Amino acid sequence: MRKMNDYVRRLEEISEDYPDFVGRHIAVRNNCGFVEIRTITGIFTDPDMKEYALVLLLDDGKHIVRRARELEQEILP
């Protein structure tokens, strides 16, 4: 079972629409400002956010929000 916070539990999962991104790594800044490499474990959409905003669930149970067009540039090879 994936780690998931309460916010992400209420969202609609659309991971199947982005199969190339699930399981890939992304660089994110932690609370101390250091860069961490995290794995994307799920992709969700929030109806309260603007169009093209995706909520990415990470392997540590946290989430980040990115625009779909920005996501391709941030995914690590």
Model description:
By secondary structure, the chain is mostly beta strands. It has one domain (6-74). Helices cover 14% and strands 38% of the residues. The protein has 2 helices and 5 strands; from the N terminus they run αβββββα. It has helices spanning 6-9, 68-74, and strands at residues 12-13, 25-29, 35-45, 53-58, 63-67. Strands 1, 2, 3, 4 and 5 form a 5-stranded antiparallel sheet that branches. The protein is globular, with a radius of gyration of 12 Å. The relative contact order is 0.26. The mean pLDDT is 89.
Global structural class: mainly beta
- Average pLDDT reading: 89
| Low-pLDDT regions | none
Number of domains: 1
Distance between the termini: 26 Å
Topology:
Blueprint: H1 6-9, E1 12-13, E2 25-29, E3 35-45, E4 53-58, E5 63-67, H2 68-74
Antiparallel strand pairs: 1-3, 2-3, 3-4, 4-5
